[in-house]
Write a structure and sequence with these properties.
Its main location: membrane. This is Putative ABC transporter permease protein. One of its GO terms (biological process) is cobalt ion transport. By secondary structure, this protein is mainly alpha-helical. The protein has two domains: 150 residues, no CATH class; 68 residues, no CATH class. The chain contains eleven helices and two strands. The protein has a two-stranded antiparallel sheet with strand order 1-2.
Length: 258
């Protein structure tokens, strides 16, 4: 499985957040995201509190804001969609700088942008502080079905290889005079996509056979001190879960005073 593989988003530094058990951080991530999503979009102060919680975690994890922000561009397509909503939605409208905008669309756009931003930031925080090699056992400890865990881990492991392969194919096509922006090159792009799909399928079969020949039974074994950390203690659960618990309190308070 490549115990020494390090994901590009992982920051190899020492901090309390890095040392926290992976299964606890994963649960905190899910709870935090659900709390953000469940918060009414018509209110603004809860999202400021959520952002402050993330800033506090970044400080403990020694993750600079300048490292997080460039990697959040992944949400750019959703921002573009959000910008169009105030113009497309119906209902009551207001004039802003000479433009007639839908109130419902403005709230919808705000909800998409802020919730997406906080969700992406929280996910990047988890990725920056969690080695990929610890995910399999953490998922097993949380009761994730044994069939899903290896599939998820293999996807995480090989998505970088497939991305690198796609880049090499793009460079090879460009070196032969290909211009992906030209319509007549659509066939070459489609053939490349199909080729990558077939190669990834064949690679998956080869890797699976190699794992089975080495005694893999479908369950990721625990190897304390080698590829995994020790199980979380009740004290660690209570301490590490504080940011997620605070987010739940903020969401519940927002609904209470709404």
């Amino acid at each position: 499985m490549g115990a020494g593989h390090a994901h590009p988003l992982y920051r190899d530094v020492t901090s309390r957040v890095h040392r926290a058990p992976t299964e606890v951080k994963l649960v905190c991530l899910v709870v935090f995201v659900f709390a953000v999503v469940a918060t009414p979009r018509e209110m603004f102060w809860p999202y400021l509190v959520f952002a402050l919680i993330l800033l506090g975690v970044w400080r403990l994890a020694r993750v600079p804001v300048a490292w997080i922000v460039p990697r959040m561009l992944i949400e750019a397509p959703f921002v573009v969609l959000a910008v169009l909503l105030p113009f497309a939605e119906g209902g009551r409208r207001i004039d802003v700088v000479g433009m007639s905008l839908s109130v419902a669309g403005l709230y919808a756009a705000w909800g998409i942008v802020i919730k997406g931003t906080l969700g992406v930031a929280a996910s990047l925080t988890f990725a920056a502080t969690t080695p990929a090699r610890e995910l399999p056992v953490a998922l097993s400890r949380l009761g994730v079905p044994r069939t899903i865990t290896p599939v998820f881990v293999m996807m995480l492991r090989y998505v970088d290889l497939l991305s690198a392969e796609v880049k090499r194919m793009q460079i090879a096509r460009a070196a032969r005079g290909d211009s992906p922006r030209m319509l007549h090159q659509a066939k070459a792009v489609a053939v490349s996509v199909g080729s990558v799909f077939l190669r990834s399928y064949e690679r998956g079969e080869r890797v699976h056979l190699a794992m089975m020949s080495r005694g893999f039974t479908g369950t990721i074994p625990e190897m304390p001190g080698v590829a995994t950390s020790a199980r979380a203690t009740p004290a660690q659960w209570a301490l590490v879960s504080l940011p997620a618990a605070a987010a739940v309190v903020v969401a519940a308070t927002a609904w209470g005073v709404r």
